[in-house]
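We were asked to recover a plausible sequence for a given structure. The inputs and outputs are reproduced exactly as logged, with field labels preserved.

PROBLEM: sequence recovery
POSITIONS: 161
GIVEN STRUCTURE:
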């Protein structure tokens, strides 16, 4: 029986969410510069998503946060495009179908907000994540959109909503 639930972030989740994201980034060996690791937002995820047309979700399993993801307007981009942001799962969350569930929730929220497309950036070696993105309807594009500040993420994908 699956014990994990997906819910919106709360202020008291901030430190645990930052810990999860940094742990996953360290585990997969991403550069600490030019990626989400360096984002000032990491320690204030609740506040950063407490704005119009943005929501951040956490996966909670028996009181522990084991994964997270969110959607928000794509930074520095003119147009009705959101970005799937900071989707990370600890080892114990993987292989349980939680990524697919989280993806559906995020895409449905983006549609609810009226976005026309959803963009994401990732790392070349994050193959399992890319497989999930493709299964969810994302396609590879040739150049970045907007300016997220993640210059070390050279894989870009887009989905029409």
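RECOVERED SEQUENCE:
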């Amino acid at each position: 029986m699956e014990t994990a639930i997906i819910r919106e972030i709360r202020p008291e989740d901030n430190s645990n969410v930052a810990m999860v994201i940094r742990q996953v980034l360290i585990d997969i060996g991403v550069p600490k510069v030019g990626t989400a690791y360096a984002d000032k937002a990491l320690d204030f995820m609740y506040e950063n998503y407490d704005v119009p047309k943005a929501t951040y979700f956490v996966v909670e399993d028996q009181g522990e946060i084991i994964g997270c993801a969110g959607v928000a307007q794509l930074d520095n981009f003119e147009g009705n495009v959101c970005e799937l942001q900071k989707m990370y799962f600890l080892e114990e969350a993987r292989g349980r179908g939680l990524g697919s569930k989280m993806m559906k929730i995020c895409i449905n929220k983006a549609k609810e907000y009226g976005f026309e497309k959803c963009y994401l950036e990732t790392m070349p070696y994050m193959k399992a994540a890319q497989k999930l993105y493709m299964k969810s309807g994302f396609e590879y594009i040739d150049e970045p959109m907007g300016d997220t500040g993640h210059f070390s993420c050279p894989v870009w994908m887009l989905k029409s909503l």
